[in-house]
Design a protein that fits this description.
The structure holds two protein chains of two kinds.
Chain A: E1 9-12, E2 14-16, H1 24-27, H2 47-50, E3 72-74, H3 87-94, E4 99-102, H4 107-115, E5 120-122, H5 125-137, E6 143-146, E7 151-154, E8 157-160, H6 165-172, H7 179-184, H8 186-195
Parallel strand pairs in A: 2-3, 3-4, 4-5
Antiparallel strand pairs in A: 1-6, 6-7, 7-8
Chain B: H1 9-17, E1 18-21, E2 27-30, E3 33-36, H2 42-50, E4 61-64, H3 81-97, E5 100-102, H4 112-119, E6 127-130, E7 144-147, H5 150-159, E8 161-164, E9 168-175, H6 184-195, E10 203-208, H7 210-214, H8 217-225, E11 234-237, H9 241-247, H10 257-269, E12 279-284, E13 291-293, E14 301-303, H11 317-330, E15 345-348, H12 356-366, E16 376-379, H13 384-392, H14 395-402, E17 405-406, E18 427-430, E19 446-449, H15 452-461, H16 467-470
Helix pairs in contact in B: 2-5, 6-8, 12-14, 12-15
Classes of the chains: A alpha/beta, B alpha/beta.
The structure holds iron/sulfur cluster.
Iron/sulfur cluster is lined by residues 66-67, 111, 113, 132, 134, 350-351, 411, 414-415, 432-433 of chain B.
């Protein structure tokens, strides 16, 4: 496996999806869970809020021209609550977003997103409101999520951001996806499996 | 003599399966059995292919198909092309990687959490994972079993290990004897109601005390199944003679000399009598009554003779809004008794309550009665083996004669990924485990969770009804 990218900062334009308690079913409607790959989930992001029953676009921040280039998603409190299925963070990732800024995150969503290398940082309420205002005033403003310094910059504005040490360390050191580390321990896995009788005697997997 | 300090089962199993500490502080944990199904595995196989990795231990990986399977008929191709594609993807992946699949034609297909125990794959002292939150069911056998996300399914496929943080352990003792007409489902609904839907976050639950000691394995599974609804990712009962009797002779259980060795090893894994716990809760069995939900999460539950809460009496603003939201969705009046609420659909199925003993007990009270005209009633065995045994005993005939539809095995109306769905704002008396808004397929559909016998009472009367007043109690009261 190739080494993971060290996620120090994410830069790009941002989109604001306002609201609190945005759950995983709103992020990607349940009927899209019937899929064998996550590949199609990008365009299905917030589908029922973006399109009407006939598939015609509704007014939505993600339907604005230029939104498809955005790399940073901004929302409200308790973002990503609901089910534990990974379809929601996958959908955000496949749609091109590489960081999420919110007032707070649901725990499982936060973990699933971090495992994709997508930093989820929180801002204090006033700062979040100021950031949203700045982005809504100028959708082309460059936003930077600085994982290392734990801050968010939007044009001239600079806001302190919160990110737990564990997630920050994993992103900075390129350990956000555990698979490479898990694969390293091949001999120890083999030994433990034999000790517990999980492999037939003498066999090697 | 054991020179080490006394430990609980969770610690023993964790320590035995710890491969190493990872640099970030998590533990790399070896997995004894990996169960997979069609919804959360294909993406993980796709990720494996992208990395060109094989399945590390295909002989420790077991698959079945349950969520998307239509239950009116298992005939293929399915009408829904997406469902059809999912079952074909599962077959392809299992075939390519040498994974055992309990497919529709095997006679052993069923809800993933029924198949593991039936086949004897679920064993004491092991670690079991599945990309499904109700994996906690397998804890009934004294296994450490929990649900995982799809990237973690990939991790287990690729390495048979996971990066995990150790949980705390809360022992929940239920003492004494359950009153007549009170079942395992009532016990777990009562526990969740008492400790809250978030009460178990960060904990594994150890269920203990005379009530669990006396329970059959099927009843223990009902309880462990809903641990996750109380926020606990896993819940378990220490293995005992009941556990060993259930497993003996099952296809994947050890046999001959290996069986005796296994029983000795399993017995030693039970929590030591003087071990420590992070928390202890004691409940008196006599306090538990037939319990039903009135709201939109499993913690919003009351006993059948209580009234739904009134937001005016809420402790705080947050509670008031959550009661109001729940009552509005459920179309219930504040302070009204829950008994008498009109029921449109009776659903008997799911990995919580669709095992043989559930059908036997339900058939006992249903025999000679008929479903109310206003109710659509469906009975969905959790596995093909349960269905076959019910049919051998004539239980299907009792259900059909009463007016139930008798279906093929699958998840059915527990969730909206197959043709079985509520319509509009129908209210469903359900043996399943989740009453979230929209869970049963209609955004305005309403779910009232209860035990199988209580669903029979609802089906027969057309209302939420206290089964104790309707049906005679058995001589031998099941735990
Ligand atoms: S029966 Fe329901 S809870 Fe159980 S595995 Fe199926 S969908 Fe999940």
């Amino acid at each position: 496996m190739s080494a993971l990218e060290k996620v120090r900062a994410v830069r790009g334009t941002a989109v604001v999806v306002p609201g609190n308690d945005i759950d995983t079913d709103r992020i990607v409607p349940a009927r899209f869970l019937k899929c064998v790959t996550f590949d199609a989930l990008g365009p299905q992001l917030f589908y029922d809020e973006r399109y009407d029953a006939d598939g015609a676009p509704k007014p939505h921040p993600l339907n604005r021209p230029g939104a498809e280039r955005a790399r940073i998603l901004i929302s409200g409190m308790n973002f990503g609550c609901g089910s534990s299925r990974e379809h929601a963070p996958q959908s955000i990732h496949k749609a091109g977003f590489r960081a999420v800024i919110a007032g707070s995150f649901a725990e499982i969503f936060f973990g699933n997103a971090t495992t994709l290398g997508v930093p989820c940082v929180t801002l204090d309420a006033e700062d979040l409101a100021a950031l949203r205002a700045a982005v809504e005033a100028d959708p082309e403003v460059e936003v930077e999520v600085d994982v290392d310094a734990r801050q968010v910059r939007a044009g001239e504005h600079l806001f302190p951001a919160h990110l737990p040490d564990g997630a920050r360390g994993a992103l900075l050191e390129g350990r956000w996806d555990p698979l490479a580390e898990l694969l390293e321990a091949n001999e120890a896995i083999e030994a433990a499996a034999h000790r517990l009788g999980y492999l037939p005697k003498g066999a090697s997997a | 003599m054991n020179p080490e300090r006394p430990k609980n089962l969770y610690e023993k199993v964790w320590d035995a399966h710890a491969v190493r500490e990872l640099p970030g502080g998590a533990t790399q944990l070896l997995i004894g059995a990996h169960m997979i199904h069609e919804v959360t595995s294909p993406q993980a196989f796709g990720m494996l292919d992208e990395l060109d990795l094989p399945v590390r231990m295909p002989e420790r990986t077991f698959a079945t198909v349950d969520h998307i399977v239509p239950t009116h008929s298992h005939l293929e191709p399915f009408e829904d092309p997406l469902a059809d594609e999912m079952i074909r993807a599962l077959r392809r992946n299992c075939d390519r990687h040498g994974v055992t699949l309990f497919d529709l034609a095997s006679g052993r297909q069923g809800i993933v959490h029924m198949v593991g125990p039936e086949q004897g794959i679920t064993q004491p002292g092991t670690t079991i994972v599945c990309g499904d939150s109700h994996t906690s069911t397998h804890g009934a056998f004294g296994a450490i079993a929990f649900g995982i996300g799809t990237s973690q399914v990939r991790d287990v496929l690729a390495t048979q290990t996971l990066a995990m943080q150790k949980l705390k352990v809360r022992r929940i003792e239920v003492h004494g004897e359950l009153p007549p007409g009170v079942y395992a489902k009532d016990v777990i609904l009562h526990i969740i109601r008492t400790l809250g839907v978030n009460g178990g976050i960060g904990y594994a639950y150890e269920y203990a005390g005379e009530v669990f000691d006396r329970m059959s394995m099927e009843e223990r599974m009902t309880v462990c199944n809903m641990s996750i609804e109380g926020g606990a990712r896993c819940g378990y009962v220490n293995p005992d003679a009941t556990t060993f009797d259930y497993l003996k002779g099952r296809p994947y259980a050890p046999s001959g000399a290996a069986w005796d060795e296994a029983v000795a090893r399993w017995s030693a894994l039970a929590s030591d009598p003087d071990c420590a716990y992070d928390d202890l809760v004691r409940i008196d069995a006599r306090e538990i009554a037939p319990t039903v939900t009135w709201g939109i999460h499993p913690g919003q539950a009351i006993s059948i003779d209580e009234s739904v809460p009134d937001p005016a009496h809420a402790a705080d603003e947050a509670e008031r809004t959550s009661i109001e939201e729940a009552l509005a969705h459920m179309q219930l009046r504040p302070g009204a008794p829950i008994a008498g609420t009109k029921v449109d659909v009776a659903f008997f199925g799911s990995c919580t309550n669709a095992r043989l003993s559930d059908f036997v007990e339900a058939a006992r009270v249903l025999e000679g009665r008929t479903v109310a005209d206003s109710v659509q009633a469906i009975a969905v065995p959790g596995s093909q083996l349960v269905k076959e045994e019910c049919e051998r005993r004539g239980i299907d005939a009792i259900f059909r004669a009463a007016g139930f539809e008798w279906r093929e095995a699958g998840c059915s109306m527990c969730l909206a990924m197959n043709p079985d769905k509520l319509l509009g704002d129908q209210l469903c008396a359900s043996t399943s485990n989740r009453n979230f808004k929209g869970r049963q397929g209609s955004p305005t559909g309403r779910t009232v969770l209860m035990s199988p016998v209580m669903v029979m009472a609802a089906a027969v009367t057309g209302h939420v009804t206290d089964a104790r007043s309707l049906f005679a109690q058995p001589q031998e009261v099941p735990a």
